[in-house]
Amino acid sequence: MASGQNREELDARARQGETVFPDGSGGKSLEAQEHLAEGRSRGGQTRRDQLGTEGYQEMGHHGGETRREQIGTERYKEMGRKGGLSTTDKSGGERAEEEGIEIDESKFRTRNR
Questions:
Q1: pTM of the entire structure?
Q2: Tens digit of pLDDT for each residue in 47-74?
């Protein structure tokens, strides 16, 4: 734990917008950053405690399974192959074309529409 004077210096820096506590980004004071960091470290643990370890792992597995059912297995696999190139405003295929990255479409059973 930081000494009183050191805490005051850290608090002053935090009030100027600097992150002075690991995982405390967004906090407007040293105390706020400490609380944010504590909440972030416990977020997944709390849900795991509620569901149990097995239930928590199963919940994670179902997320991808649900998406695969929505768009079909082949399109889901294709999304995974191109997913590393996607950004918030462009799909993986669009970005690959823009940057001249060749993607071997013969590996996909589905075709772009």
A1: 0.36
A2: 777 778 787 777 776 767 777 777 787 7
Q: Is the dihedral of CA 23, 26, 29, 35 positive or negative?
A: negative
Q: What tokens were used for 47?
A: 């849900």
CA pair distance 41, 33, nearest whole angstrom: 12
Label each residue of the chain as H, E or C: CCCHHHHHHHHHHHHCCCCCCCCCCCCCCHHHHHHHHHHHHHHHHHHHHHHHHHHHHHHHHHHHHHHHHHHCHHHHHHHHHHHHHCCCCCCHHHHHHHHCCCCCHHHCCCCCC
